[in-house]
Specification:
heterodimer; A: 7-stranded mixed beta sheet; B: mainly beta; 5-stranded antiparallel beta sheet
Chain lengths: 114, 110
């Protein structure tokens, strides 16, 4: 069964450093999403991406964040200058575009900012 | 804007039935989704209700009442593996955004 993959599974970085989180969505999916989940809290929408551009973004997704689909398979989230409060689990998700309701999630990247 | 309310925690006994409620306030309603998340795992889609009534998928059912802005997830014949957090979610400002409730932690006792 096809699945969303994410790398790395855990990333430790120092405050102020740039990090890139990588995702490979399911191959025939057209819509891609990034979410953040601070430990024990709700899943927070960051951004959605379709047809090589951002479709929607939340208030969390400020200028320090960017997304890119550098090739036909990868989907990346870049955080330019990490802050302590960026420490969280970051999930990538994808779907075929029949609404946002049913999404397929990757296993997540745990980001720890020290 | 959109907001969803769920109980933070529900406890039930193995083999029993449990209901997890979700009330929502939205500026436009298009349906209610449910996801399951085990500790340390990724959310997994369970169900989606766009119309009033009950949708059944095996041991799990989901109900929606649009007039009451209310839905619930019903889990029958509880198994220990059902111990997880359950999230309800609605469409956000656009068709490209899903807004999530805070989640309900389901604790199952033998």
């Amino acid at each position: 069964e096809p699945e969303v993959t994410q790398t790395p599974s855990h990333q430790v970085t120092q405050m102020g450093q740039e990090v890139i989180l990588r995702c490979v969505p399911i191959s025939n999916h057209l819509y891609f999403y990034w979410y953040r989940q601070i430990l024990g809290q709700k899943v927070e929408f960051l951004v959605s991406f379709y047809n090589n551009e951002i479709s929607e973004k939340s208030e969390i997704f400020d200028d320090q964040f960017s997304v890119e689909r550098p090739d036909g398979s990868n989907f990346t989230l870049k955080i330019r200058s990490t802050k302590l409060e960026d420490s969280a689990m970051y999930f990538c998700a994808s779907n075929d575009g029949t609404g946002p309701y049913e999404q397929y999630f990757g296993p997540g990247t745990r980001l720890t900012v020290t | 804007g959109q907001s969803l309310e769920q109980p933070s925690e529900v406890t039930a006994v193995e083999g029993a039935i449990v209901q997890i409620n979700c009330t929502y306030q939205t500026s436009g309603f298009y349906g209610l989704s449910w996801y399951q998340q085990h500790d340390g795992g990724a959310p997994t889609f369970l169900s989606y209700n766009a119309l009033d009534g009950l949708e059944e998928t095996g041991r799990f059912s989901s109900f929606l009442s649009r007039s009451d802005s209310y839905g619930y997830l019903l889990l029958q014949e509880l198994q220990m593996k059902d111990s997880a957090s359950y999230f309800c979610a609605v469409r956000g400002k656009s068709n490209y955004q899903l807004i999530w409730g805070a989640g309900t932690k389901l604790i199952i006792k033998p």
